Amino acid sequence: MSALLAGIVLAPLLSSVLIGLLYMISITQKPLAKMWFTAPALLAPFISFSLGVIAFLQISKTGEALHFEPYLWLSVGEYKIYMGFLGDKLSIFMVLFITFVGWLIHLYATSYMSEDKGYGKFFFYFNLFLSSMLLLVLADGPLIMFIGWEGVGLCSYLLISFYFKDNSNVVAGNKAFIVNRVGDLGFLIGLAILFFYCADAGFSYENIALKIASMPPYLLPLVGLALFIGAMGKSAQIPLYVWLPDAMAGPTPVSALIHAATMVTAGVYMVARFSFLYELIPNVGLFIAYIGAFSALFAAVIATKQSDIKKILAYSTMSQLGYMFIAVGLGAYSSALFHVFTHAFFKALLFMGAGAVIVALHHEQNIFKMGKMRQVTPVVYVTMLMATLAISGVPPFAGFFSKDEILLVAFGRGEYLIWGIAVFSAVLTAYYMFRLFFVVFEGKNALHVNHPHDVSWVMKAPLVVLSFGALFAGFIGLPSLLGGSHLIGSWLGEWGGRVLHVNHETEWLLLALNVCVSLLGIGIAYKKFYAYDLSKHKEATGIVYNKFYVDEIYDVLFVRSLRKLSEFIAVSLDVNIVDRFIMGLSHDFIKLGHMVALVQNANVRFYALIMMVGVSVASCYLIWMVD
Amino acid sequence: MHIGILSIIIFLPMVTALVFMLAPLSSRTTRNAAFGVSLTIFALALYIYTHFELTGLIQFKEFYPWIKSYGISYSLGIDGFSLIILMLIATLIPSAYLLLWNNSRSKSYWISMLFIQSGISGTLFSLDLFLFYFFWEAMLLPVFMIIGLFGSGNRVFSTLKITIYTIMGSLFMFVSILYLGVAHYYEFGVWSFALSDLVHITTIAREQKIFLFFGFMLAFAIKIPLFPFHSWLLQTYSTSPTGGVFLLSSIMAKLGVYALVRFMMPLFPDLFVEFSFYFVALGIFGLVYFGIAAICQMNIKKMFAYSSASHLGFITAGIFALNIQGMMGSAFLIVAHAIATGGLFLLVGVMERHLGIRSLSGLGGIATKAPWFTLFFAIMLFCTVGIPGTNGFVAELLIVLGIFHYNPYLGVLSALTVLVAASYMFWVFQKAILVESDNDVANMKDLRGYEILGLLPLAVLIIAMGVYPDLFLYKIEPTLQHYLIDILHVGVK
Amino acid sequence: MITNPLFAYMAVAMILFSIGLLGVVSRKNIFVIYMSIELMLNAINLMFVALSNYHHDMGGQVMAMMVIAIAAAEAGVFLSLIIVLYRRKKSLDSDIFRTLSQKEVV
Question: Which residue of A597, A598, A609 is in closest CB contact with C25?
Answer without folding.
Answer: A609
